[in-house]
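Anyone have tokens for Protein tyrosine kinase 7 (inactive)? Sequence:
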Amino acid sequence: MDLTTETENRRGEGGGRLRIDPLYVVAIICFQVLSTGTAAIQFTREPKSQDALHGRSAMLRCEVSDPTDITYSWLHNGQPLENSERRHQEGSNLKFITVDRRQDAGNFECVAQNTAMGEVLHSTNASFNIKWLESGGVTLKEPISEREIENSAPVTLRCHIDGHPRPTCQWFKDGVKLTEKSHQINNKERTLTIKSATPDDNGLFYCCAKNAAGHVCSNSNFTLNIIGMSN
Ligand SMILES: *[C@@H]1O[C@H](CO)[C@@H](O)[C@H](O)[C@H]1NC(C)=O
Ligand SMILES: *[C@@H]1O[C@H](CO)[C@@H](O)[C@H](O)[C@H]1NC(C)=O
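Reply: yep, here.
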């Protein structure tokens, strides 16, 4: 109280309107110095969302401006990340020896903690657009079993190669590429339909597919064997 009155008195004519407690001023200055001091932790590098190939390596980077007293850790889908041989923290970065399309789906976030001040800073989330291609077999889709295949009836085969982005598929019979002219090819469903299958259509059917992740052929083939009617 004494201080306030003294300040007021010293200010003279202007007084009354300006009642500033010097202790209050000191407190504000101290607070500003402290708060700018703690705000010094800033990311100079944050993990970025990126394309990746299943089975290949990748790296998510993280860095703060002043690494003094900083401890880094990573979160995956909000959970602390457990280091493994395949995926582990290397310095401040997160290293993937081989990206896995299932295990590495979702969000990765870098956490920088100042152990002296106790301040914790979270980076933005980053995720992978994982490209992959996986082989599969050729199966009979219609009719439901081989026993039900009839002469002059439709037959539909399905190619079980899958991937991201969606692979484009090609069909082969006895090693010869099939075209849309002779067969009904549905790229979205990855099916091949023979509208009216006869013994002329007999042979070994397989498919191959490609996308940004590579090129593979089916890992099991389908043999069409229609018994002709003996007139
Ligand atoms: C990052 O994603 C996780 C879940 O995957 C979420 O809990 C967290 O709030 C997100 N962080 C930011 C900064 O958006
Ligand atoms: C499928 O057929 C192709 C072409 O004849 C052949 O190269 C491949 O080895 C066959 N695959 C299987 C799994 O039988």
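The chain has two domains: 43-132, 135-224.
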